[in-house]
Amino acid sequence: MTARPARTGAVPPPAASGIRVENVSKVFPGEGGGETVALQGADLDIQPGEFISLIGPSGCGKTTLLRLIADLDQPTAGELRLSGLTPREAREARAYGYVFQAPALMDWRTVLQNVTLPLDLSRLAPAEATARARTMLNLVGLEGFEGHRPWQLSGGMQQRVSIARALALNPGLLLMDEPFGALDEITRERLNLELLRLWQETGKTVVFVTHSISEAVFLSTRVVVMTARPGRISDVIDVDLPHPRGVETRGSTRFFELCTAVRERLREGHA
Ligand SMILES: Nc1ncnc2c1ncn2[C@@H]1O[C@H](COP(=O)(O)OP(=O)(O)OP(=O)(O)O)[C@@H](O)[C@H]1O
Known about the structure:
This protein is an alpha/beta fold. It is built from 8 helices and 9 strands. The longest helix has 18 residues, at 185-202. 39% of the residues are buried. The chain binds adenosine-5'-triphosphate (ATP). Adenosine-5'-triphosphate (ATP) is lined by residues 28, 36, 38, 56, 58-64, 231.
């Protein structure tokens, strides 16, 4: 077997991705010959560097939309583009990092080895992969835990490892499917702050699925409200809270007003 040469040199930081979702539908075959319209006629334009949250009742197509963007599934109709690339081209170019609801770490690898995994797969020189992984672990506040195994960490720390792993290839886009859903409220608020800091420092585009109204408002530049049966985008709400946002943001009148606005739109969708 011929050894493939290791890549060397820093990978230049990619520009943040813009995303265009045009009249996208996804229909799954259902039980007994029926079908489920998971997403119907979705239109959405995401500018590079935006932080977009998708919120809506269970089954409204949030994960489906994220998976279509990531090329983990294909639309039944319509078109998606990530900075002009098809989802497949974007996936092949490793243009995004994906953070799942559960951290999905490998227990037999150390924290550092979990983060270097995508770098090893892209044949980055080992010394550089290690250096890059350490930088990402510092970015998510896990310096000192490189040699631990995932099972030695709390749920919040594990999720931070999976965020570091998603950032390792320095993608211009981060796709996050309810990453903090299983965490207690205080840990979740702390990770919200860390994610915001990271977003501001790196300028990446983020698409974030959540069930939490306050989380969506706190984090986002825009909140996309979705409704179920069929899954549709029903509203897009601009979040005009100033940056940097911090603990005091959650106590502001404007934060409360925006949460109320999102809640009302969600209620209308449930009616
Ligand atoms: N692979 C699949 N096969 C069949 N139906 C599917 C498949 N994936 C999703 N669905 C259906 O599509 C609809 C949307 O699912 P999706 O997971 O996108 O919703 P969601 O908004 O992310 O829900 P939740 O908030 O509960 O995670 C649901 O009715 C679901 O049952």
